[in-house]
Every structure is written in structure tokens, then in C-alpha cells.
Amino acid sequence: MLLRIHHAAIICSDYERSKRFYTEVLGLRVVAEHLRAERQSWKLDLALPDGAQIELFSFPNPPPRPSRPEAQGLRHLAFAVLDVAHCKRALEAQGVVVEDIRVDEYTGRRFTFFADPDGLPLELYEAAPAT
After folding, report:
1. What is the count of structural domains for the chain?
2. What are residue 119's phi and psi, to 5 degrees?
3. Which domain CATH number covers 30?
4. At residue 124, does pLDDT exceed 70?
5. How does pLDDT run across 41-98, given as a tens digit for each residue?
6. Tens digit of pLDDT for each residue in 51-65?
7. Which label site among 15, 27, 33, 111 has the fewest CB atoms less than 10 Å from its CB?
8. pLDDT at 26 over 90
9. Could you give the strand order of the β-sheet that contains 110-115, starting from the edge strand earlier in sequence?
10. Does an H or E element contain 90, and which?
């Protein structure tokens, strides 16, 4: 069912410092950068050599991670799948609570979230069709 990791999302405390680190120190290529003005938030998509991505987010005064999804640190782990709806049904059949399917406003791809037994947020992200 799972194909590969699609992206890891990280919320940083200082956007410019983290952007420099990931692009200049680690050498990741910028795929897209969006200012989400209504949230006072930047979203920076960075490419890893194997095609996986890092999503770097900023939010005003993010608290340290213990509880909120919009806190500093790892936001979620995403897995690329061929059919989000099929995978959602398969997880639910095993008693896993899965959120409603949504559509990524930038890519048009479908995705949904669920949690591991410790509450780590996990995402199923629909892969682009093979060409």
C-alpha cells in the first residue's frame, strides 16, 4: 500500500535562518515558496535528490512541540500512495480513524491524515499518475 515517503513537514522558529540552512547548508533546491498571508505563514517546498521533499513552514510565535500541530518541529510524515480513498478505506477497516480527504490547494492532489498509536500525525498523499 505505501510506496515511499513523499515529504516531511517542519515548522521552524525563524524562517529566514531555516531557509538559509536548508538551501545553502544542505543544498536543497527550492521547488516553490508561498506566503500564506491570512495565516502570517510561509511555506517553502524543498526537493531532496530522490524526489522526496521537505515542507518548511513558519507561523507567528510557534510554541515548542508538545501538543499543537502548528508547533515547532516535525509536523507530520507523509507517504505517497496511488489512491488515497482506497487507502483510507483500508485503514478504517482496521479500526484506524482517518480524517476526511482534502485537496492540496497548490498541487490539486488529494490527501488525508491519521495518527500512529503514539499520536504522530501521518499523511497519505496521492502520487501523480505515472506517465
Report:
1. 1
2. 90, 5
3. 3.10.180.10
4. yes
5. 999 999 988 889 989 999 888 876 665 666 776 678 788 889 999 999 999 998 889 9
6. 899 899 998 888 766
7. 27
8. no
9. 29-36, 41-47, 53-58, 4-12, 73-81, 121-126, 110-115, 102-103
10. helix 84-93
Q: Which amino acid is at 98?
A: V
105's CB contacts (< 8 A; 6+ apart) are none
CB 112 within 8 A of CB 101: yes
Q: The C-alpha cell of 41 is what?
A: 505563514
Nearest to 54 by CA among 15, 16, 11, 7: 7
Structural domain includes residue 131: no
Q: Which structural domain range is residue 27 located in?
A: 4-126
- Is the pLDDT at 112 greater than 70? The verdict is yes
